Amino acid sequence: MKVFLGPFTVIQDWNADFYEKPDPPTSGEQAEIYHVWASDPDDASDVADELAASRWGDWHECLRPIAVLRGYASFCDK
């Protein structure tokens, strides 16, 4: 069975744990936006989690998904 991938925009924001830990990254005060290719919204969220882990290391555990949009939301670009 072939799996067709499509574009998704995943928006993640920092939870309260981010602000309670010492020395948070300074650039982590804004929501994180990831444009990914995935088969469905759940998969898109997983791909975004992997990207967040590679960017933020252990800090990615403080991110929570806010929205998963089908397609690339260009107005969300930083």
Number of strands: 3
Mean residue pLDDT: 85
Mind telling me the C-alpha Rg?
13 Å
Give the terminus-to-terminus CA distance: 37 Å
Query: Structural class of the secondary structure composition?
Result: alpha+beta
Report the total helices.
2
Helix-strand sequence:
EHEHE
Describe the strand arrangement of the main beta sheet, using strand numbers.
2-1-3
Largest sheet: 3 strands, antiparallel
Shape: elongated
Overall helicity? 25-40%
Poorly predicted spans: none
The number of distinct structural domains comes to 1
Characterise this structure.
The protein has one domain (6-76). Helices cover 27% and strands 31% of the residues. The relative contact order is 0.33. It is α+β, with helices and mostly antiparallel strands and 78 residues long. The model has no long low-confidence stretch (mean pLDDT 85). It contains two helices and three strands, in the order E-H-E-H-E. It has a three-stranded antiparallel beta sheet.
Give the secondary structure arrangement, pairings included.
Blueprint: E1 6-14, H1 16-20, E2 32-38, H2 41-56, E3 63-70
Antiparallel strand pairs: 1-2, 1-3
Structure in a nutshell:
This protein has 78 residues and is an alpha+beta fold. The chain is built from 2 helices and 3 strands.
Labels describing this entry:
single chain, 78 residues, alpha+beta, three-stranded antiparallel beta sheet, elongated
